Amino acid sequence: xxxxxxxxxxxxxxxxxxxxxxxxxxxxxxxxxxxxxxxxxxxxxxxxxxxxxxxxxxxxxxxxxxxxxxxxxxxxxxxxxxxxxxxxxxxxxxxxxxxxxxxxxxxxxxxxxxxxxxxxxxxxxxxxxxxxxxxxxxxxxxxxxxxxxxxxxxxxxxxxxxxxxxxxxxxxxxxxxxxxxxxxxxxxxxxxxxxxxxxxxxxxxxxxxxxxxxxxxxxxxxxxxxxxxxxxxxxxxxxxxxxxxxxxxxxxxxxxxxxxxxxxxxxxxxxxxxxxxxxxxxxxxxxxxxxxxxxxxxxxxxxxxxx
Length: 307
Fold this sequence. Notes:
Layout lengths: L1 H9 L3 H30 L6 H4 L1 H4 E3 L7 H5 L25 E5 L5 H10 L4 E6 L2 H13 L5 E5 L12 E7 L8 H11 E14 L5 H7 L12 H10 L3 E13 L5 H6 L3 E6 L2 E6 L2 H7 L3 E9 L3
Parallel strand pairs: 2-3, 2-5, 3-4, 5-6
Antiparallel strand pairs: 1-7, 6-10, 7-10, 8-9
């Protein structure tokens, strides 16, 4: 019996599987390092021309601003670095006394907006994997004298938060950067209380992109290059165990074109991809141009952890 078992085990492909898992893990860590470095530079204000270089601020919402002027006046200056794709707090129905967690909290903009709603008995926890962002957010919390906000260094795939401890999870243009989105939503499910909810803003694709564009995105670290099709995004949330999964609203986003009409027409057969300050222009066929029409969207999605 023992001999047969040993023989059977010797025929398994355990070593190959282990090597493949290590390669995937190494790739994910390299991607995280790239993102940490990119957003660390932003937090340290080393990218003075960030709004001209980075993809996030160049995505222009065609229908409404991300935040109201009133909201911006209610939080510390320097909290909003222009990295979001929406305004999850405006749609989350935040209640007094709730515990709110922000995945990828950056300089704290959405955390402070949530803190203004939950009152002194509530609590907001911002989680970010970039140490410089955590430092900046903590400085902003001190400036605003926030006693009900805490910022923790950690990865959204491995949240430094207890099980069943949270009423609401928000995130703003961050989850699409994660290599393992399945793990992110599994973690969100773990830390939410039964009946807890998520309201997420993210960049997604409304349809499959042309192969030329998809291939160009590979290896780039930006909110657009890591995005997935809406239906796939919602399926990932469902597989984590959530119910009542759906899209609250969505908007087409596009780069802001400047210059003469002639210049704009010349760009009709091109797409510009910007990531970490690097610009890549692709020549597209008329069919590919049509396929890219309204392909990139900003969407707010919601879901609930069953009781």
